[in-house]
Amino acid sequence: MSGLEQIIREKLANGSDAFLCLKNQAGVSVPVLITSPDSEDIEVAELGEVRYPLGKILIALQKEHPDTRLAVVVRGCDERAFIELSKLEQLDLDKLVMIGVACTPEEAEACGCAKPYPEDVTLGEKVENPRGLETIERLESMSDSERMQWWKEEFSRCIKCYGCRNICPMCFCKDCSLENPHLVEPGVIPPEFPSFHIIRALDMAGRCIDCGLCEESCPAEIPLRSLYRKMQEIMADKLDYRAGESRDEKSPLSFLGEEAEIKNLE
Amino acid sequence: MEGMSVSEEVRILAFLCNWCSYAGADLAGVSRLQYPANVLDVRVMCTGTISTYFVVKAFQEGMDGVLIAGCHIGDCHYLKGNYMTAKRFQVLRDALKFLGLEEGRLRLEWVSAAEGEKYAEVIRSFSDEVQALGPSPLRKKDKTA
Question: B10-135: what fold?
Answer without folding.
Answer: Rossmann fold (3.40.50)
